[in-house]
């Protein structure tokens, strides 16, 4: 009796294994959380140092138009206006999304509604290929094809916001397209059938039922593409011209948060103002990616009926 | 002699090379309810979907035979399927309103047909919802998503949506199979209210439903039409042994 009692009270081998597995998976999760939190903490502490230890005014940083962190203005204040880069980042992102969206929707409609068989055969390989191309290659193609073309068409150097947006457009197109395709595929077949059964034409079915039901998903795809475009550094840096000036038109040299970061971070001393303001730019990037994430979640929540 | 609104002769239908319907001759009286019964896979839904050319969507289906709707050939090359489907509406097994408001759902067929007049739309939406016996339940929530309704209400909105284009024939493919008994009986009531206003052809697995609501019943088996007669005759004194076996539940 006692033997049974003892064995019942003791932990069995299986439950020990179970606990071991739980500890193992939980620590993996914990590690990831720690990494994410410390990245945030590191970027935030460095980025905020600009405002707390270097006493740069936050508003001056966000709205200032002169960027030359090593120099000071007439009042002895450092020139740390990040508005040109912030504007540049948003402009290339929105332009790229604006060009990519109609292409993505058109491609996705063709591949899911008009010619699914050929669509499946083409889309998979093309998407994988486009996603797999390193961004330096995109940048290089942009540098040797898009920049000269824009120079020929609009004059000037050809470097600028438009060149950056064109490169980003090609880079985010596969992401936006394949996500849009997934969304259109998930529109239930019976929507199509009942629309047609009500006497709708094929175009009306696509336009009034399928695209309309898929709108939240398409928006998510676009925001996802924008998040990618916002964070892309190398390819943009190669074609945008890297002049930290307020962009006055789309075809004159400009800069983005990422392009200034990649250029400057190796040339500054840790702890100096020049270095800290770059971390402040990184903090903006981080916060923006957070914002994109929140938008995607909000859309998904609203779209889930 | 009642008027025949739809006459089909020698209907053969193939999925790829497999023959699913082996020559069906059926005709439908105007403003009657005709029930199509039979075991699963007997071809009754397949036949129903041929009547408004829903098989056009699939590319491996071949349909042969004569389909005369008010004296016009449904499968003639110059038939306008958009026009045809406005005259022959369809309600599916799963309640399937679009993820729009109730109003937009019912107005859908009207709008695709090019109606933009607000007064006409309002009037027709109300009329259709009343016809489908759901107006009282949704009249205050017309601009809420149709997906917030219960399954039975959704199905009646689907019926209202099909009625809005004022079809002459309504095809119903197991309209109550996915519903609970209470909702099913409401949908049945709706059909009973609509009788004499339009022709209805209903596929059903419920023998009780067929006997309750239909004027005529067609019994399908293995892609053949076994028997077609007045519902009373089919259920009380069927001519064929197979029909007798099926309605008494000996197989199927």
From TrEMBL, chain A:
PROSITE patterns (UniProt xref): ABC_TM1
Matching Pfam families: BPD_transp_1
Keywords annotated in UniProt: Cell membrane, Membrane, Phosphate transport, Transmembrane, Transmembrane helix, Transport
Gene3D superfamilies: MetI-like
Origin superkingdom: Bacteria
UniProt GO MF annotations: phosphate transmembrane transporter activity
GO biological process: phosphate ion transport
Residue spans crossing the bilayer: 20-44, 86-110, 122-146, 152-176, 218-240, 277-300
Family annotation (InterPro entries): MetI-like (IPR000515), MetI-like_sf (IPR035906), Phosphate_PstC (IPR011864), Phosphate_Transport_Permease (IPR051124)
GO CC terms of this entry: plasma membrane
Membrane topology: Multi-pass membrane protein
Subcellular location field: Cell membrane
Domain ABC transmembrane type-1: residue ranges: 86-296
Similarity-based family: Belongs to the binding-protein-dependent transport system permease family. CysTW subfamily.
Known function: Part of the binding-protein-dependent transport system for phosphate; probably responsible for the translocation of the substrate across the membrane.
The protein's name: Phosphate transport system permease protein
Species assigned in the record: Weissella bombi
UniProtKB/TrEMBL annotation, chain B:
InterPro entries reported for this sequence: AAA+_ATPase (IPR003593), ABC_transporter-like_ATP-bd (IPR003439), ABC_transporter-like_CS (IPR017871), P-loop_NTPase (IPR027417), PstB-like (IPR005670)
Domain ABC transporter: residue ranges: 6-247
Sample GO molecular function, one term: ATP binding
UniProt-listed GO biological process terms: phosphate ion transmembrane transport
Transmembrane regions: none
Domain of life of the native organism: Bacteria
Signal peptide: none
Pfam families listed in its UniProt record: ABC_tran
GO CC annotations, alphabetized: membrane
Record's keyword terms, sorted: ATP-binding, Nucleotide-binding, Phosphate transport, Transport
Protein name: Phosphate transport system ATP-binding protein
